[in-house]
Amino acid sequence: MTSLPPAQPRQKKLGLVIDLDICVGCHACAVNCKEWNAGGSAGPLTDLMPYGGAPDGVWFNRIHAFETEGEDARTVYFPKSCLHCEDAACVTVCPTGASFKRTEDGIVLVDDELCIGCKLCSWACPYGAREFDTDAGVMRKCTLCVDRIYNETFDPADRVPACVATCPVSARHFGDLGDPQSPVSRLVAERGGYDLLPELGYRPVNKYLPPRSRPKSTCAVEEAASPSTGGKLLQWLDQLLSR
Amino acid sequence: MHPAPSIIIFTVSSGLGYGLLALTGILTAMDQLPDDHWFGTAAVTLALAAVTLGLISSTLHLGHPERAWRALSQWRSSWLSREGVAALAAFVPGGLLWLMFLLDARGETLRAPLCLASAAFALGTVACTAMIYASLKPIRQWHNPLVLPGYLALALMTGALWLAALASLWPGDARLVIAIALAATALAAAVKLGYWAAIERDRGHSSIESATGLGKGGTVRLFEAPHTSENYLLKEMGFRIARKHARRLRRLALGGGFALPVLLLAAAVAWNVIAPLAAILAAVLGTAGALLERWLFFAEATHTVTLYYGGPG
Known about the structure:
The complex is a heterodimer of chains A (243) and B (313). Chain A has 243 residues and is α+β, with helices and mostly antiparallel strands. Chain A has 7 helices and 11 strands.
């Protein structure tokens, strides 16, 4: 059923919070995502010519890098995967019912037994979260590791998406963004977490935490006008030598 | 957006068929077509053949064509599903109309309702096709109020051109049908000119800054793409060739596909002897123009995902 589930009070909204302040752009999340999902319930994830001149294949997570200009200029590593939107047009445009949003936790999934491979959902997604598997003829996307997070054979600590489990700097957080008291929701509130492309109104569940603004650098080497520190003797010498 | 030949042929061919079916229905109800049941049979056969060719072509785009029937299930939310349902439903009045012409059945009470039902289902299906594109917010050139009128106008234009070509081959006065084709072509050209002006004006609301949320201090630039070779997203959504030649191709479509048919049809109205030749040539040129226009409709469209790759979004 590709109509979105009706909104419920205290709706569980599982998603990711990605901290752009500390992501180091190591691509470990993307690699572990590929590794887990190539063998998991979403797999296999096609790779075409993996060792050739123009390797191509399905990835659920892609790490972009941007640079910003201005006073606070910097390089920002920017992981991007499905945002499990509340108004997920990728779901409503699906003609077959293959795309759906789960009522119980808001995860957006594709049933590859129903998908006809029309690609319309990938056009409807503004973020590029869906990639077509030319080998299987169906659309693929991030499952939020639905086969990990409820997996009771795992230690509770490991019941998180593969990208979150592997991040070496803890730049990725997983939790219920529908619960305002959850650790991820508090993190979003504290750090001013925001939506990507908010003007399109897809209401993504995943949030991004902005890079912290840095204090003005005190490490720059400058020609000192006069020593402000160093005691009376140095200041007297400075005055003497400045004559 | 990648201009897939299967989708271009699908939208143009089915649009032509539905336009032809709608006009045949409307003009038959008004008794304005040659009073020969073989004319109606030929027109509806051509219309249903073009629709069927288009629908078959559309399944070539699918990863799993054998599952295409599943697309009829989600009409509550999906314009693509609605289009599939409408396309199948249109075969009912269209098929009955075809039978009515073939058997020369002159049941007056059913004739007009059947004609108008065919026209309504035909134009309704074209509207669903247009809404598939017009409902997609990430593509500003498609999420535009002139997309729906554009699809309807081009369907009526190509349908009218072929109806005029057919009528010019029949004995009798074809000037009314030719004049309708001329007007439909001029209308379609006007809508496309308005559309092109609108997409030049509207730069969209999204930017690399709103896509990344990093624009607080100033501008944002792509520093490094996530991968070294093109992936599905860039092949499907990052098509770039057209923008370089867009203006020249627009002029070609406008001149060869719209203006020239208008001149040919005007000549056909003025000089009856050249009417068949001029009308057929106009129909061929107009169809080629519609194919070129549809190619541009895809190739000129930009998708917000390209913002994440430093593109124009």
